[in-house]
UniProtKB/TrEMBL annotation:
This is tRNA 2-thiouridine synthesizing protein E. GO terms for cellular component: cytoplasm. It holds the Pfam family DsrC. SUPFAM superfamilies: DsrC, the gamma subunit of dissimilatory sulfite reductase (SSF69721).
Length: 104
């Protein structure tokens, strides 16, 4: 496991830069992660990220785009609009969670 420095502190990340320690995340860090991948966070973005965090705390797994739609109520089309091209990967990255299962 490696570390990197973001938001003025060291955080644990995997080889692709995804956080590996759930408790190291906060919204300041999320904003920096979003900036790194070119996502301008809006209240809608935060709603999705907060859903992902809460769902992960409950299930222990990162929600797929299908689950974010079915359980979170965020249509897949909206996810693609908010997090273009690879919404599952981008949402989980900003939320400080592992990539969802099946995400390339």
């Amino acid at each position: 496991m490696s570390t990197t420095t973001l938001a003025g502190r060291e955080i644990h990340v995997d080889a692709e830069g995804f956080l590996t320690e759930y408790d190291e995340w906060d919204e300041t860090l999320a904003q920096q992660l979003a900036d790194q991948i070119g996502i301008a966070m809006t209240p809608e973005h935060w709603d999705v990220v907060r859903f992902l965090r809460a769902d992960y705390a409950e299930t222990g797994q990162t929600a797929t785009t299908r689950r974010v739609n079915a359980v979170g109520g965020f249509p897949v089309k909206q996810q693609f609009a908010l997090f273009p091209k690879k919404p599952g990967k981008k949402m989980s990255y900003i939320a400080g969670l592992p990539k969802p299962a099946g995400c390339v």
